[in-house]
């Protein structure tokens, strides 16, 4: 019985090992091919090459030899470099056939001139560069066009604010630099402590736009996992340690962590080199700065972050924002914050509904920097 049990165990282990090796081999093939083979696209494009050559010979008025750039350009966007070389060989053969059949004395658009050859060759060179770039970064040939869109949507979903109980209003607006789709500013938020506490982290990664997008995506995922998994005072030290472990050349970031009690309105702000928040006191109508103490994230180990406390009473508003909203070459931050609060006063009567986006438009519409603004209001 013992020998039979051992043999059975050995057989099961061999089967499991074989399945693991098969799965690994398949995953390796899929990775090399880019989520599937490109033979269908290659076959379709190879068929278009003789069709274009035949059309050039029969109806040169409607089909010029330079039309061969069409499958070449499409191949650069769809094929792997190895497959693209086969397409180029077919296109070169088609040009040779066209020149032999039409002859050097043919007049009109059907004539295969040195200029035609140069145009086709130049398009082939650009197509090959594009294909090599996609192969180097591992972009799938069929889904490469959607990868960046998927990354942008992931950042957008991670920046969504949770629903708040009745009596609270929140909104967030984010505008990347240069009209791009990616930003170095991001927000992660969660309701913790059984839903009675709102925790929000607004972070500004060094750099802007596409330069900071990859780091912002990585940090937003990491910060989203840390938020709510640690005590509030442990979040920024853990985030600081995470950035230090990345060892980036330009790896620092500023961040502000809001911990808001949704029952009482009491809150704490912990800052890592971030700009102060602004609170509107409904009773006096004045804006007050709320600034925690702490260094930038990713600068040195053992950093401490001292919170500042406050309370949101009915009618009060708290604004968190990044420096792109208030800082510009022609003005300092203090002037930018005064301009922001002046524009924000216009929305007191409307309860700040839809104010976040309009404030960015009014204060920093043409600023070439990432801009983010978070508004939290306790309704009267």
Automatic annotation (TrEMBL):
Keywords: Hydrolase, Membrane, Transmembrane, Transmembrane helix. Pfam families: SpoIIE (PF07228). The chain crosses the membrane at residues 40-73, 85-106, 112-133. Residues 164-378 form the PPM-type phosphatase domain. The keyword Hydrolase applies. One of its GO terms (molecular function) is phosphatase activity. It comes from the Bacteria. InterPro entries: Bact_Sigma-Reg, PPM-type-like_dom_sf, PPM-type_phosphatase-like_dom. This is Serine/threonine-protein phosphatase. It comes from Streptomyces pacificus.
